[in-house]
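Apologies for my clumsy wording, but could you write out the amino acids of a protein and the tokens describing how it folds?
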Amino acid sequence: MKITRGGRLAGDLTGDVARFTSSAEHDHYIADDVIEINMAHILALASSKCIGKGEAAALLSALESLLGKVKHVPPEMEDIHMVVEEEVTRLVGQETGGKMHTGKSRNDQVATAIRMRLRAFIIEICDGLISLQQSLLQRAASPEGRTVVPGYTHLQHAQPVTIAHWLLAHHDSIRRSFDRLIGSYPRVNLCPMGAAALAGTGFNIDRSKVAGYLGFEGLLENTMDAVASRDFAIEVVSSLAILMVDLSRFAEEMIVWSSSEFGYIEIPDDHASTSSIMPQKKNPVTLEIVRAKSGAVLGDLVSIVSIMKALPLTYNLDMQELTPHLWDACESTALSLKVLADFVSKVRFNETRINASLHKGSSVATELADVLVREGGLPFRKAHHVVGSLVKALSSEGLSLSEVDPERLRATISAESGIELPKESIERAVSPVMNVNVRNVRGGPSYAEAQRMIGERVRSLEEEVKAVASIRQKIDKARHEMMREIAAIVHSGASK
């Protein structure tokens, strides 16, 4: 019979009911966190003299022996909390083991453990975001970053940009996800311990001390809110969903660019598969899985919100079904970031194909119209009409602006508008490189702006690295202090 049954309830749950209500399948994520929470709680119980030093020493020694060893929760067990308590009781006996749960509940314990595991995931995902940003910036700063490539709207040639400018666009959306995620961390890193089931405890336990042992920055103060809230999970998964949408868009663009019709990139061999029947195939499988995982994370968010939307205060077992979606979203995002960082570092750009495509789409048309405005004094709408008519005429011949003798363009423009432009002006206007560099506005695609943006973002990335390192250091320091205090108590108990 389980340790929580036999008083109010007779007998054990039937097999199907036990499996249906158990969180055993996913509790391995929080096993060590639960053990450390019990350690911090025992320290607080000993400090307030709710248990004796000898009992504390025995309990702490038993808990320490379990760290890293609880890898599996038997399906017949309710959850990791009961596994840990039963193991400790087996090691120290019922009389002492039965005191470990004094002044706490599974409600505040699980809420705390989820926050501890989630903050570890936030650190891991932030590391992944930093790695992906580094890969993007390194490729943008390389010589190939200066390669002029068609920019698209509606998946049609729009205006020339550079590979660096395109990579920086993806970098900046990813950097915002870093800001969102790191911004959520202070709300995740609040400690529910001491809230017990919902109304706190009548034992004199210092909640702030427990929070400090576990590396939390503060308390989730209201005891009902402490066990009832999962808004922190919704916030984090919302940020992950936004990030995964951006990663999926990047993956989709790479899939299109790798197609035979585009041929702008060569998929790295270790990110591709071939067909079981068609030997020529090189399928962009990792990018396709990123797209799919984006949908899965969006589903996780919808599931989490749907589970929480109608729950009364405080704890309801429905919330147990939320947690697997949280871990799935974190795992999917962390792995997607690692895969894409590796992909970006290895992908090869086909500059020959890019250049051939660049000269086909008349993407220089806007600059030609701008030249008619700047040098010819035409109103922009008139210039737009003149160049549009010219592109239409050339398209009927299968030609684009960059493929025609500038002298022919000059003569046609003169006949259409009465404006006589120097041939040199026409030549500059239909040059994709000139199109890029004349757009030297802040954030534009010019070579100079790309270099400025890369330098600024490299410096910003250094600050991101420091921010994550600071968070990790605070958690490690708190854990070290707790373990040092535990060692002193265990040593004192053993020497008696």
DSSP finds 19 helices and six strands in the chain. The longest strand covers residues 156-162. The two ends are 35 Å apart (CA to CA).
